[in-house]
């Protein structure tokens, strides 16, 4: 594919935001010096993964995507390292793609106490030094944080000092609220997202005549070919912007789709195909696909069960896990062989039951209170259910989730239905092995849609309800099987929140209602759990209260209890499951570290559950069971220290 401008420096061996932070000397002292982190890959990776002595830097979602970034930690003033790792700039069509200083700062943790405004000035100085030292190339500055945090007042002073052509990109939403300030910035070109920010079309009459528009018209976050919608968008743009002042591009980075659709069974457009579409649009040879948009009426009634009170444990600091246990090489090999027809159904079932039996026995030996079956039949929490629902298609291509971990999001291709029971067989078997309760665990409707590639002919909210209806049938089966604890995971609830604030209320109303539909028919004695991770809860606190769950398990190991405290202060009426250790790091915290978070909460200990912050499937058995052993030991100490208080 022949591109007029080819971005470089837009991928990294682990995390692009982390690489940018390290380049500007933003390295926690516990891992070494900025120069060491820049030159030594081992030191660099320790920032993301942690060591036995040094906890990893926190990991959070990249805006409203399913990609995770490592949060930079400002412990000192930024300083450009002496010899940053840079790409090859050979060729006259290269542009350096660089996360902008404001977005880097908005994702960072300020431990200096200086505040954003002062730190931005210092960071901007280092960006100026770096950019002005580059060869004479175009620099693409990416500032999606304008959408969430606005434009800092001295941003124009910063761009005015740059001696290179600057292409300033704002993606993932419309720029309506700050368009005037954005268009006034002294830059060569401005990139806008016309997919997630369709209302940007209304701003074209204001677009300055002295700037180039980079129009993001190819959807960088979905896998469908360019449709007649793309054609209409381009027609509107060309009415306002002459071709000599126009580039066309994807709406955002193509890291959110797999590399190529070659070999896939569906008519999909991945990264390579999207670049080919751009070339075809430029050459006038594009063939747009038809799309029959359908208005699906959304439910007006509010779902939910009759019980109004929230279940409370009879014991202080009840313990559980989030669901998955280590996915050993033997397990993955056996599951793959079964899918390929090399292992019989009977052999596979015997193996899975053996894994479940071992998992239950180990949990009982540890002394956990509510058990799980370990999810050996699931390679991925979304992919597994998608394989059993009608209306989903699997793909071979993978996309980066974080670091070296990749996922294969399914594609929603039609109406979603559940042809047969999915999980009850395995959960019921686990329950038959123990007198302790075993949780049935499902992936919630919002997460199923958000972590898939959704249809473009009906609304995202309509797809929430289709998945919820199918999951409600699965809940019915679990209840009939005698399961009394049911967990509906919704880690994507906050992630899917539109950056466009005008769309948030509509999204949250139907996201919560679809979630409530999943458990609306359960009897009063059923305990409803949910799990969320990587979430910034204040923005969705009212939605969390409305979800109606008895127990909400959260990631809190890196936030040191602050997340739980904010949820409690936000009026959440149920119990909170504290994630007291980080499952994404091989580091095993001490018992004393695990005691700190629950000890800091002023709550009835029966309402404080203790658990890992996420599933354990990426850990080794030794790591997982050592972490759980220490967690249970911490709970023993907590129960001795804090007697029960009145409910």
What do these coordinates show?
With 647 residues, this protein is α/β, with parallel strands linked by helices. The protein has 21 helices and 21 strands. It folds into 2 domains: 74-283, TIM Barrel (Alpha-Beta Barrel), CATH 3.20.20.210; 365-641, TIM Barrel, CATH 3.20.20. The strands form 6 sheets. A 7-stranded parallel beta sheet has the order 1-5-7-8-9-10-11. A 6-stranded parallel beta sheet has the order 16-17-18-19-20-21. Helix 4 (101-107) crosses helix 5 and helix 11 packs antiparallel against helix 12. The longest helix has 22 residues, at 345-366. The N and C termini lie far apart (66 Å). The model has no long low-confidence stretch (mean pLDDT 94).
Keywords:
alpha/beta; 21 helices; globular; TIM Barrel; 647 residues; seven-stranded parallel beta sheet
Q: Give the overall shape, derived from the CA principal axes.
A: globular
Portion in strands: 5-15%
Low-confidence stretches: none
Largest sheet: 7 strands, parallel
């Amino acid at each position: 594919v022949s591109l007029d401008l080819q971005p470089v420096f837009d991928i990294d061996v682990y995390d692009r935001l982390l690489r940018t932070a390290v380049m500007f000397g933003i390295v926690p002292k516990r891992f070494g010096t900025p120069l060491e982190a820049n030159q030594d890959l081992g030191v660099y990776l320790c920032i993301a993964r942690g060591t036995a002595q040094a906890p990893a830097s926190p990991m959070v979602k990249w805006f409203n995507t399913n990609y995770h970034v490592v949060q930079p930690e400002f412990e000192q003033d930024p300083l450009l390292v002496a010899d940053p790792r840079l790409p090859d700039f050979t060729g006259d069509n290269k542009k350096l793609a660089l996360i902008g200083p404001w977005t880097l700062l908005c994702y960072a943790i300020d431990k200096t106490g200086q505040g954003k405004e002062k730190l931005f000035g210092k960071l901007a100085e280092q960006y100026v030094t770096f950019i002005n030292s580059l060869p004479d190339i175009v620099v693409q500055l990416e500032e999606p944080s304008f959408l969430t945090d606005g434009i800092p007042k001295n941003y124009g002073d910063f761009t005015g000092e740059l001696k290179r052509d600057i292409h300033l990109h704002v993606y993932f939403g419309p720029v309506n609220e700050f368009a005037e300030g954005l268009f006034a910035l002294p830059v060569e070109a401005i990139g806008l997202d016309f997919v997630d920010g369709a209302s940007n079309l209304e701003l074209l009459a204001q677009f300055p005549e002295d700037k180039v528009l980079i129009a993001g018209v190819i959807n960088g976050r979905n896998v469908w070919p360019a449709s007649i919608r793309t054609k209409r968008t381009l027609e509107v743009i060309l009415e306002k912007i002459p071709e000599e002042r126009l580039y066309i591009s994807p709406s955002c980075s193509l890291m959110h789709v797999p590399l190529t659709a070659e070999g896939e069974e569906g008519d999909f457009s991945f990264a390579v195909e999207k670049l080919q579409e751009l070339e075809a649009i430029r050459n006038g040879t594009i063939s747009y696909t038809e799309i029959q948009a359908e208005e699906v009426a959304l439910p007006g009634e509010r779902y939910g069960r009759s019980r109004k009170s929230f279940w409370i444990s009879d014991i202080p600091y009840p313990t559980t896990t989030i669901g998955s246990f280590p996915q050993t090489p033997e397990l993955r090999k056996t599951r793959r062989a079964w899918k390929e027809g090399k292992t019989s159904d009977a052999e596979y079932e015997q193996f899975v039951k053996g894994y479940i039996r071992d998992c239950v026995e180990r949990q009982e030996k540890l002394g956990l209170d509510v058990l799980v079956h370990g999810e050996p039949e699931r390679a991925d929490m979304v992919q597994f259910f998608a394989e059993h629902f009608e209306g989903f298609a699997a793909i071979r291509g993978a996309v980066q989730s974080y670091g070296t971990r990749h996922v294969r999001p399914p594609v929603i291709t039609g109406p979603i239905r559940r042809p047969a029971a999915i999980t009850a067989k395995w959960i019921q078997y686990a329950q038959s092995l123990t007198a302790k309760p075993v949780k049935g665990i499902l992936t919630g409707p919002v997460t199923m849609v958000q972590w898939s590639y959704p249809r473009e002919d009906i609304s995202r909210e309509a797809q929430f309800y289709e998945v919820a209806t199918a999951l409600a049938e699965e809940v019915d089966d679990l209840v009939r099987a005698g399961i009394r604890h049911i967990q509906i995971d919704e880690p994507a609830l906050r992630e899917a929140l539109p950056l466009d604030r005008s769309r948030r209320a509509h999204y949250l109303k139907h996201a919560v209602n679809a979630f409530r539909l999943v458990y609306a028919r359960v009897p009063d004695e059923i305990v409803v759990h949910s799990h969320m991770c990587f979430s910034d809860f204040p923005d969705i606190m009212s939605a969390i209260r409305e979800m109606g769950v008895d127990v909400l398990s959260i990631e809190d190991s890196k936030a040191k209890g602050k997340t739980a405290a904010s949820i409690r202060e936000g009026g959440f009426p149920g119990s909170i499951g504290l994630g007291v250790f980080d499952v994404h790091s091989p580091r095993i915290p001490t018992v004393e570290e695990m005691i700190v978070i629950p000890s800091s909460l002023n709550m009835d200990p029966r309402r404080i559950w203790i658990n890992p912050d996420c599933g354990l499937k990426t850990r080794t058995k030794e790591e997982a069971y050592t972490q759980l052993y220490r967690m249970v030991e911490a709970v023993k100490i907590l129960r001795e220290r804090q007697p029960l208080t009145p409910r």
